[in-house]
Amino acid sequence: MIKVAVCGALGKMGQEVVNAVMDCNDTELVAKIDIANQEMYHSIEDAHRVVDIDVLVDFTQPKSIFENAKYCLNNGIKIVIGTTGLKDEEIEYLNRLSKEKNTGCFIAPNFSTGAVLMMMFAKQASKYFDNAEIIELHHNQKKDAPSGTAIKTASMMAEVKNDFTKNNCPETETIDGARGGNSYSNIHIHSVRMPGYIASQEVIFGSSGQIMTIRHDSMDRKCYMQGVLLAVKHVFEKNDFVYGLDNIL
Q1: Residue 235, CA distances (Å) to 6, 104, 112, 228, 229 in order
Q2: Mean predicted lDDT score pLDDT of the chain
Q3: I need a surface site. Which of 101, 102, 106, 169 has the fewest CB within 10 A?
Q4: Catalytic amino acids?
Q5: pLDDT tens for residues 37-81?
Q6: Domains of the chain from N-terminus onward
């Protein structure tokens, strides 16, 4: 039985993770951690002093995730990170720390199997198109932009091609940011924040005479739970560092 703690247990994703862990035959919920509730553990340190934790699942917020991950890896707790907003250099630091401490670390910008397949399909399509942009749409309580999924998608596409703006004319923004953020291989990412959305993403490819769009929509947060449990089981069995659910599908 895998002993699992959930950090950010009161959040919308955290509540779904708590339920998924409790419903799974292979996992046992040993701690719910959230600073917003007096009846729960307020920190990973508080929980760790009282219960044994095999794997911690973190769905908190960008400003706390890096310190949370360092604490876990330095104290022999394997971690599954669903919180987005980590910088490239922070991810690389956690990669090194995970290997140094021989403690598993799993980071996934998106745990939906459909979203991961979208990213994999986008990478494959990148071989055949020289122009592409990404539009990601989330609820208006999401604090980081662009989304981790959009960043990961652009990174995967950039492994195939080093520029996605072939034959674009020189541009001038009359309003700053009108063309979105310029990411890997000049892939422009446009972020929309709107009540009513959970998480959606379009990858738009273009060439002379045709447009192709790959889109994924998350309609319910339960769609992420299969991927979360896959990551928990993987990181429990192996002490490796993994960035992206696509690496174990």
Answers
A1: 15, 5, 17, 11, 10
A2: 95
A3: 169
A4: 138, 142
A5: 888 999 999 999 999 999 999 999 889 999 999 999 999 999 999
A6: 2-107+222-247 (3.40.50.720), 113-218 (3.30.360.10)
